[in-house]
C-alpha cells in the first residue's frame, strides 16, 4: 500500500545544474539536497522545501515535460507569481478550475511545466 510520495523527478539537459540551482535554489528558495555518492556521478541535482522533494535528472537527449508536471503548494501565491514574472517567467493563472484552489503554471528555464497552488 502506498503511504506517501518520496519525490518527483524532472529532466534537465546535461550541464544544466547551475541554471537549475539559479531557478530552483535561488528564485524558488528551495534547499539543495546532497545526492548520495553512488548517484552523484550521474549529474543532476536534488532540492527540497517543506515536504516537497524534487530530483532533477540528466536526460540525453533532453526533451522538456510540456504536460506532466510537479505541483507545489505555496504560502503566498501572489508574491511568488510576481517574483517569477519579474525574473522573466510567464505565469498563466488557472484560478476557479478546482474549487478552493488558486493556482498558476509556468516553465522552468528548460521548458518543463510547473504548477504552484495555494489553497
UniProtKB/TrEMBL annotation:
Tell me the InterPro entries matching this sequence: Glyas_Bleomycin-R_OHBP_Dase, Glyas_Fos-R_dOase_dom, VOC_core
Alphabetized Pfam families for the sequence: Glyoxalase (PF00903)
The protein's matches in SUPFAM superfamilies, at most eight in alphabetical order, are given as: Glyoxalase/Bleomycin resistance protein/Dihydroxybiphenyl dioxygenase (SSF54593)
Extract the Gene3D superfamilies matched here: 2,3-Dihydroxybiphenyl 1,2-Dioxygenase, domain 1
Every VOC domain range: 4-119
Protein name (database record):
Glyoxalase
Amino acid at each position: 500500500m502506498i503511504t506517501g510520495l518520496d519525490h518527483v523527478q524532472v529532466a534537465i539537459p546535461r550541464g544544466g545544474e547551475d541554471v537549475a540551482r539559479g531557478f530552483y535554489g535561488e528564485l524558488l528558495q528551495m534547499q539543495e539536497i546532497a545526492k548520495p555518492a553512488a548517484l552523484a556521478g550521474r549529474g543532476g541535482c536534488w532540492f527540497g522545501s517543506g515536504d516537497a522533494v524534487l530530483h532533477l535528472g540528466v536526460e540525453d537527449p533532453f526533451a522538456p515535460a510540456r504536460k506532466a508536471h510537479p505541483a507545489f503548494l505555496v504560502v503566498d501565491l501572489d508574491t511568488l507569481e510576481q517574483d517569477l514574472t519579474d525574473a522573466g517567467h510567464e505565469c498563466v493563472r488557472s484560478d476557479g478550475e478546482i474549487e478552493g484552489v488558486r493556482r498558476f503554471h509556468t516553465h522552468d528555464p528548460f521548458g518543463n511545466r510547473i504548477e504552484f497552488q495555494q489553497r
